[in-house]
Amino acid sequence: MNQKMLILALETSGRIGSVALGLSEKMLEEHTFSAPLAHSEEILPAIKNLIKKYAQKPEKIKNICLAIGPGSFTGLRIAVTIAKTMNLANNADITCVDTLDVIAENFRPSLMDINSGQKVADRKKIDAIQLPINAKRIAVILDAKRAKFYIAIYQRTKIISPEPDSASQWKKILPDSLMTVEEFIKKFANPQTPIWLLGEGLLYYKEKFNVPGLKILEQKYWSPSARNVYKLGWEKIKKGIFADPLTLTPKYLRKPDAKIKKI
Fold it and tell me: Residues 215, 208: contact at Cβ < 8 Å?
């Protein structure tokens, strides 16, 4: 992989979408949409503007990375459709990453080896993020409607790199699961080993999760981003992990509410 690869990353599973463009391991720029649920109106102009800004051409894109869900049904379909279209037009490979994994990457609790206590040289980076050094587990929460939530739990890894584009700091110890608030609290809320929460599922239900053993991160950590899609996607690209465009579908943990009426 000596030649730099033009990569496009799409995030349309959350409330506010975004796109990112980069060359191999280096992300050039991320563009975040101007308003919630504006995916269909803003995604194509955003892609066009990024490509033009960096003097590239659509046919040069060699890989499309996208958050595959769970998330917005309409938003996910938009990203999948664009990815399949670019695969047909340019033979671009498609790389999919889990939306909850994308959100988990927002939270980098400290810049040190938690076992040795060895700090990195750039102390300013640690001070800037001001996150709890003892946070060893996080849970990502997304609203699944009907009083249920998509939830995944992550365990902090041993070594934490100061580099923002380094490999993930989190190991997934509970895969994407569908459960109620009560089920989650009963199984996982423990004041002795608290779990820090993030994710857009907290937007309207924050108070329901406000119990001993659960701690809620600031809202700025709750949403997925194309930047993190790019980061996680690049790790898969290096390993040669690609999706089959013929069978590719958004990741749903339940069917949409919409039903066809009988005439």
Answer: no
CA dihedral 185, 191, 192, 196 (to 10 degrees): 70
Token code pair at residue 257: 């509410």
pLDDT tens figures, 148-186: 999 999 998 865 555 555 567 889 999 999 999 999 999
Q: How far apart are CA 261 and CA 68, in angstroms?
A: 28
Structure tokens at 38: 């504006």
| Span 27-37, pLDDT tens digits | 999 999 999 98
Q: Do residues 79 and 159 both lie within one domain? A: no
Q: Do 124 and 230 belong together in one domain?
A: no
164: left (phi over 0), alpha (psi -120 to 50) or beta: alpha
Containing domain of residue 177, as a range? 107-221
Q: Do 92 and 123 sit in the same domain of this protein?
A: no
Distance CA 106, CA 67 (A): 14
